[in-house]
Structures are given as structure tokens and as C-alpha cells.
């Protein structure tokens, strides 16, 4: 078997420097991307709630069991509460139109 070759101290220093630089870069990149991903997850959760609400209302409309309900109880006007208000207004208008048609 061939004896191992002695590696130059310059090459060793360069290797470890590159390793440490890569670790530092990865940590900084992770810290930069983490809040962005958290915000995307939060937005996706809000959109999922709105989507499920729309599906529920559509299902109730199809079954004809939609009652007059109010969802505008939010304290602040966020995009989510505006969407809930729009959905409930749409449902109330449809319910009111159905009642006037039946009369």
C-alpha cells in the first residue's frame, strides 16, 4: 500500500476556510428565507379558510339549506375579514333573492 501524501498547509487552510464560509452563508441564507416562508404559510392558511368557506356556502346553496348568517364580526378590516364579508353578503343577496322569488 502507498503511504499517504502530506497535504500542504495552504490547501488545508483553503479547505477549512471554504467549509466555514459555506456554513456561514447557509446560516445567513436560512435566516433570510425563514420569515418569507412563514409569511407564505400564513397567507396560504387564510386562503384555505376562505376557500373552504366558499365551498361550504356553495354546498349549502346546492342543497338549499343556506340560512341568513353574518360573518362580519372582525374587529379590524383585514383582507380575510373583507373576504368573509363579501362571501356572506353574496350569500345574503342570494337568500334574499330566493325569498323574493318565492313570494
TrEMBL record:
Coiled-coil segments: 36-63
Main location: mitochondrion
InterPro entries attached to this UniProt entry: ATP_synth_F0_esu_mt
GO process terms (BP): proton motive force-driven ATP synthesis
Source domain of life: Eukaryota
GO CC entries: mitochondrial inner membrane; proton-transporting ATP synthase complex
Cell compartments where the protein resides: Mitochondrion inner membrane
Annotated keywords: Acetylation, ATP synthesis, CF(0), Coiled coil, Hydrogen ion transport, Ion transport, Membrane, Mitochondrion, Mitochondrion inner membrane, Transport
Gene Ontology terms for molecular function: proton transmembrane transporter activity
Keyword Membrane: yes
Subunit structure: Component of the ATP synthase complex composed at least of ATP5F1A/subunit alpha, ATP5F1B/subunit beta, ATP5MC1/subunit c (homooctomer), MT-ATP6/subunit a, MT-ATP8/subunit 8, ATP5ME/subunit e, ATP5MF/subunit f, ATP5MG/subunit g, ATP5MK/subunit k, ATP5MJ/subunit j, ATP5F1C/subunit gamma, ATP5F1D/subunit delta, ATP5F1E/subunit epsilon, ATP5PF/subunit F6, ATP5PB/subunit b, ATP5PD/subunit d, ATP5PO/subunit OSCP.
Function in brief: Subunit e, of the mitochondrial membrane ATP synthase complex (F(1)F(0) ATP synthase or Complex V) that produces ATP from ADP in the presence of a proton gradient across the membrane which is generated by electron transport complexes of the respiratory chain. ATP synthase complex consist of a soluble F(1) head domain - the catalytic core - and a membrane F(1) domain - the membrane proton channel. These two domains are linked by a central stalk rotating inside the F(1) region and a stationary peripheral stalk.
Similarity comment: Belongs to the ATPase e subunit family.
Protein name: ATP synthase F(0) complex subunit e, mitochondrial
Amino acid at each position: 500500500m502507498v503511504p499517504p501524501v502530506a497535504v500542504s498547509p495552504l490547501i488545508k487552510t483553503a479547505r477549512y476556510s471554504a467549509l466555514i464560509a459555506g456554513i456561514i452563508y447557509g446560516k445567513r441564507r436560512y435566516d433570510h428565507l425563514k420569515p418569507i416562508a412563514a409569511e407564505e404559510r400564513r397567507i396560504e392558511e387564510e386562503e384555505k379558510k376562505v376557500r373552504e368557506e366558499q365551498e361550504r356556502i356553495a354546498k349549502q346553496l346546492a342543497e338549499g339549506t343556506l340560512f341568513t348568517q353574518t360573518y362580519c364580526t372582525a374587529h379590524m378590516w383585514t383582507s380575510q375579514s373583507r373576504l368573509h364579508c363579501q362571501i356572506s353578503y353574496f350569500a345574503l343577496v342570494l337568500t334574499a333573492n330566493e325569498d323574493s322569488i318565492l313570494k
